């Protein structure tokens, strides 16, 4: 009984120590994380399909769960994206997010679908501003991505928006039949991986922020495009056919960040390197050693 009491006291002390030591980023129950992941692969006649088996939303979902997110805090739509479908997803975020919460919205579809069917810039920017949180993260993974960040770019309300390419660029999603290593969005692949990669922790505070993941992933996206995709003459030619000459740029494409969040925005539910479990394990071991010490004496 005494052992249990000692263990509880030591665990309690360890948790206080965690906070005192500056690990207060361990989110409490009042700071939740919410995400909407929207992906469209099949399109009506006249549009080209993007048959990647919803790999992009799956990859991001797996990443968020590995960062400690709860599965039921992630709202996924894999299918036909219409205005009501997207609006319902945004409402879900609005209904769930409180002031301290993180809200992420990711969308993968055609840029022209965003512009001409979803009429994104007509309604989304106003809806996004109405979210009751300062930690808004908008991830646009489409061609022309910057166009859909533009209405809120540099707006002073707290937000971070990322786009996989600039307003006049096209993005790349690899298909299995092409035989290149990355299936689905190249930007999604490198950004999702960066969120879990300690090498992306550029300021070495053991947390990977959205800003760091963006900065780390951008050159990797450009390198893959330039060295792997554009190295295939047929793929480079497909860009030339629409009047784009990637070889005329230092790098292509140019992912975009609009950072109007004053600090670094961290979306990890648990400490990246599991500091809290480490503290707790150490405390338990200490308690066991102490118990044996008492027995011996
Ligand atoms: Ca960091
Ligand atoms: Ca920032």
What would your notes on this structure say?
The chain has a single domain (32-278), classed as Rossmann fold, CATH 3.40.50. By secondary structure, the chain is of the alpha/beta class. The protein has helices spanning 2-20, 55-66, 83-96, 111-117, 120-129, 186-195, 210-229, 233-240, 275-296; strands at 33-39, 74-78, 102-108, 135-141, 159-163, 173-174, 184-185, 256-260. Mean pLDDT is 89; it is low at 15-29. Helix content is 41%, strand content 13%. Strand 1 (33-39), helix 2 and strand 2 form a beta-alpha-beta unit. It has nine helices and eight strands. The strands form two sheets. A six-stranded mixed beta sheet has the order 2-1-3-4-5-8, with helices on both faces. The protein has a two-stranded antiparallel sheet with strand order 6-7. The structure holds calcium ion (CA) (2 copies).
């Amino acid at each position: 009984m005494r052992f249990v009491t000692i263990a509880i006291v030591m665990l309690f002390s360890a948790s206080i120590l965690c906070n005192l030591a500056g690990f207060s980023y361990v989110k409490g129950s009042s700071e939740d994380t919410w995400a909407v992941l929207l992906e469209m692969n099949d399109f009506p006649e006249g549009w080209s399909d993007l048959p990647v088996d919803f790999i992009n939303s799956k990859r991001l979902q797996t990443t968020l769960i590995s960062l400690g997110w709860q599965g039921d805090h992630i709202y996924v739509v894999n299918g036909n994206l219409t205005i009501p479908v997207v609006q319902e997803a945004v409402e879900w975020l609005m209904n769930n997010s409180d002031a301290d919460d993180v809200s992420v919205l990711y969308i993968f579809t055609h840029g022209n679908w965003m512009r001409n069917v979803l009429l994104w810039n007509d309604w989304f920017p106003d809806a996004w501003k109405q979210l009751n949180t300062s930690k808004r993260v908008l991830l646009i993974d489409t061609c022309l991505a910057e166009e859909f960040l533009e209405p809120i770019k540099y707006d002073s309300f707290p937000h971070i928006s990322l786009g996989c390419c600039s307003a006049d660029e096209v993005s790349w999603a690899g298909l299995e039949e092409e035989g290149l290593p990355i299936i689905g969005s190249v930007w999604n692949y490198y950004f999702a991986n960066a969120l879990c990669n300690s090498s992306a922790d550029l300021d070495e505070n053991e947390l990977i922020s959205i800003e760091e993941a963006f900065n780390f992933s951008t050159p990797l996206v450009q390198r893959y495009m330039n060295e792997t995709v554009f190295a295939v003459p047929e793929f480079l030619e497909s860009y030339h056919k629409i009047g784009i000459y990637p070889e005329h740029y230092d790098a292509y494409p140019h992912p975009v960040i609009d950072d109007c969040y004053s600090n670094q925005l961290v979306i990890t539910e648990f400490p990246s390197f599991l500091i809290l479990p480490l503290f707790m394990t150490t405390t338990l071991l200490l308690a066991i050693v102490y118990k044996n010490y008492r027995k011996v004496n």
